[in-house]
Fold this sequence. Notes:
Shape: globular
Low-confidence stretches: none
Strand content: 15-25%
Radius of gyration: 20 Å
Structural class: alpha/beta
Strand order of the largest sheet: 8-13-12-9-10-11
Number of strands: 13
Number of helices: 11
Distance between the termini: 19 Å
Amino acid sequence: MTAFRLLADIGGTNARFALQAPGDGCADIEVLACRDYEHVKDAIDAYLARAAARGHATDGIRHAAIAIANPVEGDMVSMTNHHWHFSIVALREACGLATLLVVNDFAALAQALPHLDARGRERIGGLDAAVVEERPLGLIGPGTGLGVSGVMPAGGGRWIALAGEGGHASFAPVTRTEMRLLDALWEEHGHVSAERLLSGPGLEAIHRVLAGERLAAADISARALDGSCAACRATVDAFCAILGSVAGNVALTLGATGGMYIGGGVVPRLGPLFHASAFRERFEGKGRLQPYLARIPTWLVTEPYPALRGVAALLDTATR
């Protein structure tokens, strides 16, 4: 009987799987495209079969944890940005598990934040001041959607992660260009959330409104990076500025004086454009509260699979 546990971090585009022996790091990490599987169990079965083919004993797994890009309330899970839906109890029974923990993906990522070191994060602008320990940490992450979370110190080295859906809070424009974006997207969708702009599809929406053409997010960022398209660079600049404003809102709301973290898959692809953007200026641009925000460090999460680390910690607690 193997001591491995199954870990998963499931977003709207990709599902990341790993095996873990209790007290050890992740092993055999693999990323599967969600679109290739009709049901979440199909993806789980495919990963386990491939892991077994690579020589891992997977038939005795009894405990698993899934971080998923969706609210988790009760037994039924229906993904917002993908078609998968399932009963937690039914999935646990179908997989033959004693424990199946399912949590919001950004709550899992937030749980990992206090444990990131210099290899897992990169500072983005701001004052070169000492980090204040044991203070709330905020988290925002544009990917297929927009994740928002935070983690609060609970004493004795313990942390409590927040599970929410702040990415769906209403978008508030700061400039006339952003008012134009709001007006155009309001005509399309009615309610315009921050996620409508701060996500892969959001980058495409900004470009569609500002440049009048449809381009995939990957093409927009690539053309902005190589300098071949001024309109794409303007789109990326607008995206980063809006992200700064929304991140500042989250930091103010949570009192995240320990630091504000940027996760998700979009920002790392922007490379030097993000560092050169108005992100930090807009993060601090809250009028009388500018000095308060100026002392909050902002970090880009660079660890490849931080949510797997976080969901493993939550599984530790659940199986004690």
